[in-house]
Amino acid sequence: MKHALSFSLALAAAFAPSALAHGHLRSIAIDGTLFKGNIPNVSNFSSPIRLIDDITPVKGATNRDVNCGKNAQIAAQVVPANPGSTVAFDWASGTGGSWPHNIGPMTTYMSTCGNTTCDKFDAINAQWFKIDEKGQRQNDSSQWVQQDLFNGNTTSVTLPNDLAPGDYLLRHELLALHLGNEMGGAEFYPSCSQIRISGNNNSLAVQPNETVSLPGAYSDTDPGIFVPTIFDPVKNYQFPGPPISNVVTGSASATPPNATASGAAAASTQASCASSLGRRQISRIMVKFRRAGPTVAYSV
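Now predict its structure.
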């Protein structure tokens, strides 16, 4: 009996450091309504959080699993949310305790699920736009906001107010940079949840100017992923991926689609018209203009 107990304790001690050093998204709360996620390789109940099969980090910025996590499976539920909803993310270590890392940024992306519902959507086809990023504390650059998770708290984001109604993947990513001073050392912990935005503001919705694919948006050489000075107070940290989307600010594209092409076409048409005029006709117009003076308006 004593021998069996000793073996069990030794086995637990051998695996504990690995489990403690990694983790997964335990739950999300949308406007206070809690939705639990499964424990990888332990449970598999109905949830909006896509289940991964391994709590170890995704390594390599171009790894397919940087999308929604290791072998992430489509979830059964698509849960309701609204434009402007607050979503809280609760991350846990592999043993169920607090999140074990505190160095590195946290980012949140969204993607529509296209013409289908999210419980049928392959995330590799997602076109992501970024809605939030949290890095170092403003009043203390030596500490990252990820410390909140390490302390046992949740972290929250607010969904954009100008989202079109429909199904979305909500992707929350923790980037652990305690090994980020080595090329390829960064640890990615992404997780995707399936939500359905209600409302009828489709005509007022803002479409993202820029979307990215994951993998595709990151490189192991990006300055926000490979950070040789990570253990010094990092100055002017550069977040990986695209900037915060215009959907967050509610601003439409500064240049409407095809505006440049239309402008070019118009200019080309005007040039063609001008070139079609005979030299004599142009000369007559110019003579009339000089005689009449610069205040006279005319048209061709």
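Helices lie at 2-21, 147-150, 246-249, 259-276, 279-292.
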